[in-house]
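Morning run. Coffee first, then this:
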Amino acid sequence: MAPSLFLYWTPRAATAYRAARKRHTQAGRAPGACILIQETTPVTTRFDVLIQDTGERYRCADTRSLLEGMEALGRKGIPVGCRNGGCGVCKVQITAGEYTKRVMSREHVSEDDEAQGRVLACRVRPASDLQLAVIGLMRKSVCRPPA
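And here it is:
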């Protein structure tokens, strides 16, 4: 007979496992040969992002775009366009730090722009603490004094 295997899971995974085991034994199968169900939760890391133009800082998870993080500041007037890298409204320049980027429209971000750290905030996620400057259409809205 195979030894029983016990693991610690979240309550939801443990409930699913117990239900699967019950169905397994009710079907007349050996108790030691039950299906294992594993639930994983990705680890999220948060990084500090500094908007150099205003001195504002915010925390941004590595699973969120810089634009989503800026929106979480709660400031009015942060321009949001397509959120898909096609409109160019959310252009920023990364001046320090590491990031991952997704596909952006070459109409709005050239290869030279990318090489200089000019990217679309909707298509970039932090991989370390970052500093950025707001450029293009976004500059007027973000850099105006609060009302």
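The chain has two domains: 1-41, 46-143. Good start to the day.
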